[in-house]
Design a protein that fits this description.
binds magnesium ion; 9-stranded mixed beta sheet; binds adenosine-5'-diphosphate; alpha+beta; 33% helix; 337 residues; 28% strand
Length: 337
């Protein structure tokens, strides 16, 4: 939890340095704790307070639908459906449709049915422990995104499986809030949903937003900064939500559906930059699971994806399209994927 406060403060500092240059429209900002995350919403608009009220309300509504721990959420209804069809909201249907698209695109590196493993390790309950091999093996039998289907607003999940949308919910929320604010005429806003940043337009003075990517070894510092306009920047890392066993061995919250254990394939941080928050969120988790070699290969095969990868050997790789907008910190050197 301490780490998340540091992330929050770090991003806040980076954002504050941007605010001093505001011109014209007044700045309004709101701190929100939702989806188990500290968020800061910043909007430049005459109607800022009203817009922030609406944005916060929307966030809480989405949280109520997507939460895996709340008994009255739509995800819980799906998890308790015992194989029967469940009617869901447009948001949940849209989110699950996107999840299934990215699950297929990444060959199951992203898989919402991995939830029973996430829970077994303790990440949604707080009772952290290393499960026994037999337990992992039996839980893995029901992990397969093909067991989930969405037809318009009807969802069917094969009996015995459970899902969780933690890997994409914040990306979806950021993208949806940005859409709402744009519709209301906002041309400058920065929505920071923990490791998910969604920018509307540019800073009020017309210059690009600057978003810092944390150094996984030293999360109080940045490994690089990215200049963006109208983009989402989403990071998945292993340095935020984790626990350690009695030998100091670290276990984190991104699970490899191949073996049910925290994904440990050479990467400690993956950032994806793009127009769609939900795509960036899905891909940042999936590339993290793939690991260094597969993630690099995936980026080469999908040149529309812009990403920054940091491996466990302190090496940083980025896609060609980011070349002019990335600034590496002095203790990092990087190479193009
Ligand atoms: P964060 O929530 O910290 O921003 P991510 O977007 O990478 O990080 O999502 C991690 C969350 O997604 C986990 O807390 C868990 O709920 C879920 N999850 C873990 N592994 C997977 C996976 N392989 N596929 C889909 N969801 C996953
Ligand atoms: Mg994600």
């Amino acid at each position: 939890m301490k780490r998340r406060v540091i992330t929050f403060l770090l991003t806040l500092v980076l954002c504050l340095s941007g605010c001093s240059q505001q011109q014209g429209q007044p700045e309004h900002h709101r701190d929100v704790f939702a989806m188990d995350t500290y968020m800061v919403l910043k909007v430049y608009s005459e109607n800022g307070e009203r817009l922030l009220d609406e944005a916060e309300q929307e966030l809480r509504m989405l949280e109520g639908r997507f939460s895996v721990t709340r008994p009255d959420s739509e995800i819980t209804a799906i998890n308790r459906s015992a194989g029967k069809p469940v009617k869901v909201s447009e948001d949940t249907a849209a989110l699950l449709t996107e999840v299934l698209y990215y699950a297929a695109l990444t060959d199951g590196a992203l898989d919402p049915t991995v939830y029973p493993l996430v829970r077994e390790w303790g990440f949604t309950t707080g009772s952290y422990h290393v499960p026994e091999q037999g337990k992992l093996h039996s839980l893995l039998q029901k992990v397969d995104y093909h067991r989930l289907s969405v037809q318009e607003q009807t969802v069917v999940l094969t009996d015995g499986s459970m899902i969780d949308v933690g890997a994409v919910a914040k990306g979806y929320a950021g993208e949806k809030l940005a859409g709402l604010l744009r519709q209301k005429g906002v041309t400058s806003a920065l929505l920071n949903l923990g490791g998910n940043v969604q920018a509307i337009g540019s800073k009020p003075d017309g210059s690009a937003w600057t978003v810092g990517i944390q150094d996984p070894e030293n999360p109080e510092e940045t490994s690089c900064t990215l200049r963006i306009r109208d983009r989402a920047v989403v990071t998945s890392g292993n340095y935020e939500r984790f626990f350690e066993d009695e030998n100091g061995c670290r276990y984190w919250h991104i699970i490899d559906p191949a073996d049910g254990c925290p994904a440990d394939n050479g990467l400690c941080s993956v950032t994806v930059v793009g127009e769609s928050g939900v795509a960036c969120d899905a891909l940042s988790t999936a590339l993290f699971v793939m690991g260094t070699d597969r993630a690099k290969e995936f980026c080469r095969q999908h040149p529309e994806i812009e990403a920054v990868l940091i491996d466990t050997e302190h090496r940083l790789y980025y896609t060609k399209g980011l070349k002019d907008d990335i600034l590496l910190s002095e203790h990092y050197s990087g190479s193009v994927i």
